[in-house]
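seq/struct pair 1
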Amino acid sequence: MPVRRGILTAGSWVVDNNKTLQAWPAEDTMNTYVELDRQGGGSGCNMAIDLKKLDPSFHVETMAIVGDDDDGRYLLGQCDQYGIQRRHMQVVKGGTTPFSDCFNSIESGKRTHLYYPGVAEELCPDHFDFSDSDARILHLGLPGAHKKMDAPWGEDSTGWATVLKAAGRAGLKANLEMVSTTRDRIRHFGRSCLPHLDFLIVNDYEIGAVADVETRDGTRTLYPKVVEALRAVFDHGSISLAVAHFPEAAIAVTRDGNVVVAGSVSIPSSEIVGVNGAGDAFAAGVLFASHEGQAIEDALRMGHACAAASMRSAATTNTVVSASECLALAEKWGFRPAPL
């Protein structure tokens, strides 16, 4: 059997139309954009590009569908630009590529997304074929953003479970990227997928929803509750590593009960332009380091370093740099103390 290598990102590929304004406008007024920028977005796109920026020689494949429009051609071009293998990225004739208009307010620092799903609503398990994949790890997302995948498929409660089962049969390890929707929906999708996952890298809200544990008190993260939630997911499948990240730190729990905590990067506020894509960058750093055989604490630090580098731009992947450069930035700014 050939040695597996690299990561396959599958699922959401979206065009982000980033539009920066001085302030979010009132209705029935005219306002002027300060900056316009088009970038690839979505969990599959962000993870793939982040990985290639961390190490251009790293093997990255992708599976997704796009429309046969200008946005679709743009995303295919992004694959070619970064050296992402895209033979399983399918183009839907007459379809519209999913896109988000992403409005960034300089005054508030907040970001508002208006999303059009386009062909994303047609994505289904039939679009996934792992028979000739060389990858070692599958990164799949986003439950809650794909109509057919979110629905039951055959004997499975969701199409996501069907795809994960197929990946497992083909010999891939799997991680799931989630979207922060309602607790009930996150729990439904999470419980559907947990039996077929090897990794779960999510934020503190999402792990609480999956495990049915309150991990936040308002905006404050309850660290012991995060550990409780992480431990709970092992009761629902064969996961080997569960990780939850939040602004101050990240906590990882292994199947044997080992708990590892790493503080996040103390990035200066003057360096932060936006946090969109920081979660994807964190997951990319953790999976990259794990793939390379690094210890869990080093993988968490790599995740934090990649996330911090990404926050220097309003776009998702623009300012991610090589693994060594991300770590150098993190060392320059320093790491926060572990909260546990």
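seq/struct pair 2
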Amino acid sequence: MMTRDAKRQMIMLKIVCIAILIGHWFDFYLMIMPATMKGESGFVIEIGIALIFLGSFLLLFTKRLTQASLVPVNHPFLDESVHHTT
């Protein structure tokens, strides 16, 4: 529950989003890891696996993004949308 003014500031939304993602990951970590690791330190493994998944996602995302055309070719309203002013 955020105020209307806070939702209109992009930096505030980024801070809240990061805090929610970290909290969600930490919640799952505390629920799952004690039962699976049984006293061994698995925090480094957890960070490593998260970095591997993030790296593979970014690699796949950027590779697919370079193959796709980001500007539509021969679109009838392309010229109007480029010169559109608000």
